[in-house]
Write a structure and sequence with these properties.
With 149 residues, the protein is an alpha+beta fold. The chain has six helices and four strands, in the order ααβααβαββα. InterPro entries: DUF1694, Ribosomal_eL30-like_sf.
């Protein structure tokens, strides 16, 4: 064996197998950016309903795998697991401490997709519409008007 091969073997034994773009893999739940179809942040995954764009992209990219962040509560992930099961799309829950990310969901293909924009804009928070209840005087006047007619 040559000296370089022995050094490589020792380094791999000490530090683990060499990985291409480890920061990128950490961010995108174990996959590369070039394979990503779409991502959602943790906050977007926590919303009450699923994003319809995810369902559409799961159907269009039937060979893509839905990667879910295992550091999140299962109750937040359950709606996307149900969606993937309904569409019969493969999914994985990535619960590795090496893959801590601010992303909650990554839809990734086996091959390069190279999309420019992979994010979905967060829905604007809808304010609960307050219906102003009429005051006592207004209700009294309305009752008087009804009795007159």
């Amino acid at each position: 064996m040559s000296r370089v091969t022995i050094d490589d073997y020792l380094q791999e034994g000490i530090h683990g197998k060499k990985v291409l773009k480890p920061e990128e893999r950490k961010k995108y739940l174990g996959t590369l950016r070039e394979r990503v179809v779409v991502v959602l942040t943790r906050a977007q995954v926590r919303e009450a309903t699923t994003y319809p764009e995810i369902a559409r992209l799961l159907k269009e990219n039937y060979k893509a795998t839905l990667l879910l962040n295992g550091a999140m509560n299962y109750s937040d992930l359950a709606k996307y697991i149900a969606l993937a099961s309904k569409i019969k799309a493969p999914y994985k829950i990535i619960a590795s401490p090496e893959h801590t990310s601010e992303l909650g969901l990554v839809l990734a293909s086996d091959t390069a997709v190279d999309k420019d924009t992979i994010t979905i804009d967060q829905r604007p928070k809808q304010k609960a519409e307050k219906r102003k209840r009429p005051g006592f005087v207004s209700r009294f006047i309305n009752k008087l008007k009804k009795k007159r007619n």
